[in-house]
Amino acid sequence: MPRKTFFSFHYQEDAWRAWNVRNSWVVGKDKESVGFYDASVFEASQKESDNALKNFLRDGLKNTSVTCVLAGQYTASRRWVRYEIVRSVLKGNGLLTVDIHGVKNNSNILGKKGIDPLSEVGVYCSNGQIYFAEIKSGKWVKYEDYTLAIPASDLWFTAPTTLGVTKISDHALRYDYAAQNGRENIPGWIETAAGLAGR
């Protein structure tokens, strides 16, 4: 059974790099991926309401078991990447970060390594309820795009019991596509992420 993987990335900055990573993973292997849309489709969705775009992204995550965040220099601060991470946690997807700054863009230029996007999103406990948090202006604040409490059973890692934020990155692995031979190794990385989440 193919492992269906959602790829999350900064469209404007890293689409070319992301396509190269995705294509190297798919070609010649019995794998499927989702989350790769023509840029015009994504941009058209952005012109609609926030709720329409959230629905669009939730639909993209359907029937997936792993979310692979392809991280460039600015990915960690992107609102919709964070939303895809949050929805992936809620869905129980395995998560991993793959740095793609070492992949050239369409102008043949390498990028700069960015912050791990999974380190900018986390969970905390307040009055016995678990909520998402995100980094804004260098501080942890309650996540604005999903404000409901999360059942502890929805988490594939130990639920927090204090106000201290548990980063999603504490329970996921991070790789470097260029330095760690991602062309050959990304299928194994994805399977490891699935295993960590019990998928």
Note down, in words, how this protein is organized.
The structure is a single chain. The chain has a single domain (about 5-115, about 170-195), classed as 3-Layer(aba) Sandwich (Rossmann fold), CATH 3.40.50. Mean pLDDT is about 85; it is low at about 35-40. The chain is of the alpha/beta class and about 200 residues long. The chain has a five-stranded parallel sheet, with helices on both faces. It has a four-stranded antiparallel sheet with strand order 7-6-5-8, covered by helices on one side. The protein has five helices and nine strands. It holds the Pfam family ThsB_TIR.
Q: What is this entry, summarized?
A:
The protein is an alpha/beta fold and 199 residues long.
Keywords:
single chain, 199 residues, alpha/beta, Rossmann fold, 5-stranded parallel sheet, 4-stranded antiparallel sheet, 5 helices, 9 strands, ThsB__TIR-like_domain, Thoeris protein ThsB TIR-like domain-containing protein, ThsB_TIR-like_sf
